Amino acid sequence: SAVPAKSRLQGGLARDIYKQRTGELPPADSIVQIDIAKIVYLNNDSPYAIEPGTLGKKLNQAGIKAAVLGNSDSIAGLQRQATLLAMDNKGIVDTGMIGGGALLDDKAFPGGYRTNYVNILNQFTSLPQDVRLVVIDIGDLSRIEDAGNMIFDSLIPGLREKSMLRMDKFIGQLIQHLNLKRDLLTIISPTPGGNKVKGNNLLTPVILAGNGINDGLIFSPTTKRPGIMRNTDLMPTILEFMDIDAPSGITGQAVQIMPVGYSLPALAGLQEQLVLTYDWRRPILQTYVSIQLILLGASLIFIFWKKSLALSILKPVMLAVISFPVATLLLSLFPTPSPFFLIALLLTIISILMVIAVQLGRLGNLMPFIFTTGLTSICIIIDLLLGAPLQKASLLGYDPIVGARFYGLGNEYMGILIGSTLIATTSLFTQFAKYRRPLLVAVCLYYIFAAYVIAAPHLGTNVGGTIASVGAFLVTALLLMNVKISLRSILLVCLGVVLVVLGFILYDFSRPVAMQSHIGRTATLILSGGADEIINIISRKVSMNIKLIRYTIWSRVFMASLGCLALLFYRPSGIMQLIRQKHPLLYKGLTGVLVGSILAFVFNDSGVVAAATAMIFVIYPMIYLVLQNISAKEG
What we know:
Blueprint: E1 2-4, E2 8-9, E3 12-13, H1 14-22, E4 31-33, H2 36-44, H3 54-61, E5 65-69, H4 83-86, E6 92-93, E7 95-97, E8 103-105, E9 113-115, H5 117-125, E10 131-136, H6 140-146, H7 156-175, E11 184-188, E12 206-210, E13 217-219, H8 234-241, E14 256-258, H9 264-305, H10 309-331, H11 339-360, H12 367-385, H13 411-431, H14 436-455, H15 463-480, H16 487-509, H17 518-529, H18 531-551, H19 554-570, H20 575-582, H21 584-603, H22 607-634
Parallel strand pairs: 5-7, 5-10
Antiparallel strand pairs: 1-4, 2-3, 4-6, 8-9, 11-12, 13-14
């Protein structure tokens, strides 16, 4: 915990206890984090190159001092996390007031005390001139949260409203002591409400005012989403304001202001849409996965019992399952003001796509797959070319509240794009075999274009997806050209993958830092960190994949799909060889998807997700062909 250096603790003065733990005696007027050694040790176990106190260290090196005023102490104990932002790497903040002087007795407030704004303002105005960073902790909302179930919920709205009014008045008084042509005021809420704020509205507000700040939305090069920044962007933003270079190892970037015509209602609407997606993403995807598992089990039962009736029963369901990814993408075209409307509209889109696909089946056995997979591939690519507006709101897109990805091609749609592209093109080959030569040229060009869209830093910017797609597309193209898979062809594929990835990394690395995607920033980290950084990246990816295999719902789809494929290779006897003989071109596409799925699994930090979504386009066409063969035999 953080305490004033001259305060008395059990065992002596805080500065003496700090010296016992660090070997250094801090300045008498400083604030010390007496658990700094523990914090450092805990961060040493992280695969990320993190040094606690980096901001304070950079300020010290530039001759700039920092201060912390206020605390969030409550009935839960000392809550002085604000010092973590301003302290240096030794756990020292130059000056401030974080003890009892920051509190005011109030018998009507939870815990019996609240923020003493008068004292904090007085301390602020009396800070030395060389203090340029001041962190003010207004802890009353946190104190209400910490009260938990010790107070009735009915009291919460009134307590929060009064606290917000006091905060607003204090900020107004604080601004009077600032020169907004020179100073920068940043108002943040680092953590969302927990115990007493219901719902999943986990995004917190950020307000900037002062020097260089005009009306508009915050834009972070990290998220590339107007109005959304990451907490890691705060430090580089402060350092840039003070004309100090940010350390090369940090993941955040200084935010900018976009002078766009966004209003508060529009920003609130964006937040509501993100919360709706966050709330319903998991239950809808869990239902989708459950339907797939049931469908796979039912399909195997029908296959082993050799019931031809199964084809007519299961075909519409398989088409609905394959249509789900593009349906969730198209869903983003429409407003979804409520969960009921979202689900009803999603089911409507899936039903329409399924009916169209079934009707197209009259023109050829593979026309339903050509339609659904072709539409899926084209829609994802068009969306990426337009800046991914549909993925940003899709249930299968990225989720800013989770914070895993904010732009480009997410791993769910990456696997879907690879799988749908290969099945659409090879089904097209099979259905229109007499046009094979012109189709081969067109398909290879489409593969090149799709790989470019996945890889380009200003479009898909997905390194793992680049490796998976280039590998899968090259293997499929070689098979379509009747090139036998040999050691030479495998080496050719590997060389092609390496050259493409290196090309896009070098291109992104050559761009200005503010325009770089995470590909270029990762290259910068590797150049500065060397082999250790490479090991850290590999370690993080392996750790994430192991975690996802254990916990994500997609691992069930991936394992079940692999299990079904393994069974179909043995039962019914000879069925896979027969399908390979009857549909050799489509079989090559299925092989390519399988290759892409394996590469996605190996080279992505959430590879099991991409592998599972790609496998959707292997297992259901395969089951369809097996059932079709059974029907033909019985017919």
